[in-house]
Design a protein that fits this description.
Blueprint: H1 3-13, H2 33-36, H3 46-57, H4 65-72, H5 79-82, H6 84-87, H7 97-121, H8 140-144, H9 151-166, H10 171-188, H11 193-210, H12 214-233, H13 239-249
Helix pairs in contact: 1-7, 4-10, 7-9, 7-11, 7-12, 9-10, 9-11, 10-11
């Protein structure tokens, strides 16, 4: 996710009106993720061919419930809504303003951690290498955005790790759903397996660095109390919808 996309997400969450230049928690403390992540697979290598195999194999999901779930996860601004079954309540600006603000601020660091390796590797999206349907329009903007690492999954895993700390009794459900959020990019056909896996590692790098920042830790403590109150107040998400989602999450797509 680019900083521009994060601003759009923040506006959608109601956190920003006119968007001034945002700043995250890390500043110069942001690790150089290009030096930490494994390199993007090169054509002809085992990892490259494995990515192609997974892309072609997951085209079978077109128009299935898992495909529709992946389409629902495309909107990165809806990440907290996507995690509502896992958390036990839908968090938003009204019932969790400190939490949503923390998530957005960390998202700026997510963008920066993703942009550097993306811009260096410039790996094409999988549907540009092999023919196959994807769950979003094949427009020029998507084609121009590199595949590796997945910014969407860096974001989803970062939020998942944070929310697992804020609701530790739901950590298994939250991290399972966050994993499925990233795997939806495989189902959707817009990222390779290696890009999704790198996004998960990238998110872990970001969260590890965030814990070194005093302001993040203070904001996390405030959010923890807020999430507990929101969960107590409810309402809980629809049980039937959550059961259907859990069934999809439990099935690995590749």
């Amino acid at each position: 996710m680019r900083v521009k996309a994060m601003c759009a997400a923040a506006t959608a969450l109601g956190l920003m009106a006119a968007a001034p230049a945002p700043s995250g928690y890390l500043g110069e403390a942001l690790p150089n993720t290009y030096k930490i992540l494994p390199p993007a697979p090169a054509p002809g290598t085992t990892r490259w061919e494995a990515d192609r195999t997974v892309f072609l194999g997951t085209r079978k999901f077109q128009d299935t419930p898992r495909w529709k779930m992946a389409q629902g996860d495309v909107d990165s601004a809806a990440i907290l809504k996507d995690l509502s079954c896992a958390v036990g309540v839908e968090l938003n600006k009204a019932n969790a303003p400190k939490t949503t603000a923390l998530i957005f601020k960390a998202g700026i660091d997510v963008s920066r951690a993703t942009n550097l390796p993306k811009d260096i590797y410039k790996r094409p999206r999988p549907y540009l290498t092999d023919e196959g349907p994807i769950c979003v329009p094949k427009d020029a903007a998507l084609a121009a955005s590199p595949d590796y690492p997945s910014g969407h999954n860096t974001w989803g895993w970062t939020v998942g790790l944070i929310m697992a700390e804020l609701a530790p009794d739901r950590a298994t459900e939250i991290l399972s759903r966050a994993r499925a959020f990233g795997e939806g990019r495989l189902v959707c056909g817009v990222h390779t397996l290696s890009a999704v896996e790198a996004g998960r590692l990238n998110g872990s790098i970001v969260v590890a660095a965030l814990h070194g920042q005093e302001q993040f830790r203070k904001d996390l403590d405030a959010a923890r109390a807020e999430v507990a109150a929101a969960r107590k107040a409810g309402p809980a998400p629809d049980p039937a919808a959550c059961a259907a989602e859990a069934e999809l999450v439990a099935k690995n797509p590749y």
